[in-house]
Amino acid sequence: MPRQFLCPVFGSSLWLALILQSLISSAVTYRRPVSGGKRQSFLERTLILLDVNTRSPVKVLNDNFLSLQLDPSIVKDGWLDFLSSKRLVTLARGLSPAYLRFGGKRTDFLQFHNLKNLAKFRGPGPDYYLKNYEDDIVRSDFALDKQKGCKLASHPDMMLELQREKAAQMQQVLLKEQVSNIYSDVTLTARSLDKLYNFADCAGLHLIFGLNALHRNPDNSWNASSALSLLKYSAGKKYNISWELGNEPNSYRAMAARSVNSSRLAQDYSLLKTLLQSVRFYSRANLYGPNIGRPRKNAVLLLDGFMKNGGSVVDAVTWQHYYIDRRVTKVEDFMKTRLLDTLSEQITKVLKIVQTHAPEKRVWLGGVGPAWAGGTNNLSDTFAAGFLWLNTLGIAAAHGIDVVLRHSFFDYGYNHLVDQHFNPLPDYWLSLLFKRLVGPRVLAVHVAGLQRKPRPGRVIRDKLRIYAHCTSFHNHDYVRGSITIYIINLHRSRKKIKLAGTLRNKTVHQYLLQPFGTDGLHSISVQLNGEPLRMVDNETFPELKPRTLRAGRTIAMPPVSIGFYVIKNINAYACRR
């Protein structure tokens, strides 16, 4: 977390006055335990003073800041044919407006085939595996074609169950490919592209399609024939799509025994830009890249060379980050403060390069997930992973990262937001609250901890992470000028937070997220203010009811929990316009 947003402003006379006033208030309200009673722990007595600069935002982000990603593996394991599910579309619509990036490790193995007679080619989707159901799926496709507007379907339970069984078998194949870095081709038909676009369009998501950059000519230049075929087909359908070329080009040598240097990569993007301009419908389409991997030595050199050799052709600079690999086996690993801080270090590296060559360019963070290679069962799909996810959103916003793309909304592995029964996982509910409550204007946070033996900032910076934004203008439950604060408490003890300065004596709406059930941090269920969160039906979300905290009340954050706090009617100048 950046220090400028966490360090208390001790030089301010106003701040000193606030601290003194709070000390007096604490002394008045503190009661010594009666003799023989259990002495209150030192950590629980620690009081955090919190204020927010409401005059002007420190960063203004994209309205689609929290966005989504789908991996091309859904073509292989068959789930692409089920994207028309009413429930899945409803869940995706809950996170709109957002971008939907179709990309991942298999981006560079995608082959587009504009096939009209689908019966002549059946790729490894559910209609290939479910031999007894092939005719049913074809009939379902024809039924969807007859619908106008959004094409939605209700799939039989038996078909879904068999699809889950077959997808589970394919998942082992996909994981082996990812771990070994040896991938097989993925065939995307015109029909598959139609289904993908229908899903994005129905859910209110803007599709970003990642093109295969490893389709190369003998001289190692990019072979754009397949991309041009896809562009022409999409233009004919008037599909509103933005584009990207390749995925983690710094890893091509390991993946395909082929190297693409920064100069060649910049030429490839220039060629793609020319192609887009040659197809009238996409002459003004956005282009994003180069989508490098984690900014280590090779990736940093590639990004620097790309920006130096013509990287200005892209509309936003993209890169990827994940926290941990699949060897992690303990929930405690998801709560290590040193691990959470690695993102800030990597963002700094990327921003330095971009600001050197193209300071006006926006930077996007893509491929974000708790863990690499599909994640870890009973860890990266549990409540514990939410600490990493919200930490990513908070740190990225504080640094001015314009968009964060979550890998993945729905597919194989354990990093997704929605499971294969179409049930929301903890990170989905966290994302839904973020979308509804948090706006794109980022505010500076000032905090101070009052302790007997002061350790400046440590208790705050390491284990208690606090961020503030203007409340989303899309949320009509709150008037403009409201502020949303979101807090991660990694402590094993309760933390008390006193609102100070401009936040004093204001009514607060609390949205407290905690694991539901006996599994604790391993739980895949979430409770909001003590009530479990579940979909009412395939098209209806539960009511997200806040708990009202009276004006002046201290916020009590339970151990290892996540909270959103909306400061109502504060009329913050930074949030009125």
From TrEMBL:
Gene Ontology BP annotations: extracellular matrix organization
Keywords assigned by UniProt, alphabetized: Signal
Family the UniProt entry places it in: Belongs to the glycosyl hydrolase 79 family.
Superkingdom of the source species: Eukaryota
Annotated protein name in UniProt: Inactive heparanase-2-like
GO CC terms of this entry: extracellular matrix; extracellular space; membrane
Cross-referenced SUPFAM superfamilies: (Trans)glycosidases (SSF51445)
MF (Gene Ontology): hydrolase activity, acting on glycosyl bonds
Species the sequence originates in: Carassius auratus (Goldfish)
Signal sequence coordinates: 1-29
Pfam families, A to Z: Glyco_hydro_79n
